[in-house]
Design a protein that fits this description.
The structure holds two protein chains of two kinds. Chain A is mainly β. Chain A is built from no helices and eleven strands. In chain A, β5 and β6 form a beta hairpin. The relative contact order of chain A is 0.33. The N and C termini of chain B lie far apart (41 Å). Classes of the chains: A mainly beta, B mainly beta. The interface between A and B is medium-sized, with 28 and 24 residues.
C-alpha cells in the first residue's frame, strides 16, 4: 500500500513568489495535516483538514492557506514567500475518526527561498 | 496549552547497550503520546503510541516506551541498540481526544557507535 505522498520533493523559490505543495493521503484516510519543520526544530502545526473542512489552524500568518479536495488530497499554498519560510513541509494523514489518532507522515517537501 | 520537552539534544551509546530517550509532557487533559523517528532528509516514521491501557507500550523495531503519569514522562527505550538506530527522535502529544494537532518536542539525536 502506498503511504503519504508529497510533491515536489524539493523546490527553490525567490522571495515574494508563491508556492503550492501537494499531498495525497493514505487510501481510506480522510484527515490531512500540514507541519513546518525548520532545521534543528520539531515540526510545527500549520493546518488540519477533515472531510474537506478546516478543523484547526496553527499560529501562522494569513500568507499560508490550504484546502482539501473531494478525493481527500490536499494543497498547501504560501504567498509572498520570505526567507524564513525555508523549511521542510510535512504532510500527515490519519483516519480522522474519534479513537484513532495516529498520524502517518510523508517524506516532506524541502522548500528553499532565496 | 500542551507542550513536550526532550531534555537531551544528543544521546550517544555503544551498539548492544540499552538506549533511552527522555520525554516529559504537559497537558490539561489526558495525554495521547507518540514517538516518531526521522532519518536524514526524510519524513517522520511512526514508532509507537500511548492512548490508554498498559503503561508499557511496545512498538516497531524493538522499541518500547513507558508512560508515567506521576512524573508526566514517556521515555523511549530499546534494550540493545543497533548502529541503524542512529537518527533523530521526536516525542509528540495530543491533549485528549478532541485535540486535532500534534505538539512536538525539539528532538533528540541518537548516535549508536559500532
Amino acid at each position: 500500500d502506498a503511504g503519504v505522498t508529497q510533491s515536489p520533493t524539493h523546490l527553490i523559490k525567490t522571495r515574494g513568489q508563491h508556492v503550492t505543495l501537494r499531498c495525497s493521503p493514505i487510501s481510506g484516510h480522510k484527515s490531512v495535516s500540514w507541519y513546518q519543520q525548520v532545521l534543528g526544530q520539531g515540526p510545527q502545526f500549520i493546518f488540519q483538514y477533515y472531510e474537506k473542512e478546516e478543523r484547526g489552524r496553527g499560529n501562522f500568518p494569513d500568507r499560508f492557506s490550504a484546502r482539501q479536495f473531494p478525493n481527500y488530497s490536499s494543497e498547501l499554498n504560501v504567498n509572498a514567500l520570505l526567507l524564513g519560510d525555508s523549511a521542510l513541509y510535512l504532510c500527515a494523514s490519519s483516519l480522522g475518526r474519534t479513537g484513532d489518532y495516529t498520524a502517518f507522515f510523508g517524506q516532506g517537501t524541502r522548500l528553499t527561498v532565496v | 496549552a500542551q507542550s513536550v520537552a526532550q531534555p537531551e539534544d544528543q544521546v550517544n551509546v555503544a551498539e548492544g547497550n540499552p538506549l533511552t530517550v527522555k520525554c516529559t509532557y504537559s497537558v490539561s487533559g489526558n495525554p495521547y503520546l507518540f514517538w516518531y523517528v526521522q532519518y536524514p532528509n526524510r519524513g517522520l516514521q511512526f514508532l509507537l503510541k500511548y492512548i490508554t491501557g498498559d503503561n508499557l507500550v511496545k512498538g516497531s523495531y524493538g522499541f518500547e516506551a513507558e508512560f508515567n503519569k506521576s512524573q508526566t514522562s514517556f521515555h523511549l527505550k530499546k534494550p540493545s541498540a543497533l548502529v541503524s538506530d542512529s537518527a533523530l527522535y521526536f516525542c509528540a502529544v495530543r491533549d485528549g481526544p478532541n485535540d486535532y494537532k500534534l505538539s512536538f518536542g525539539a528532538g533528540t539525536t541518537v548516535t549508536v557507535r559500532a
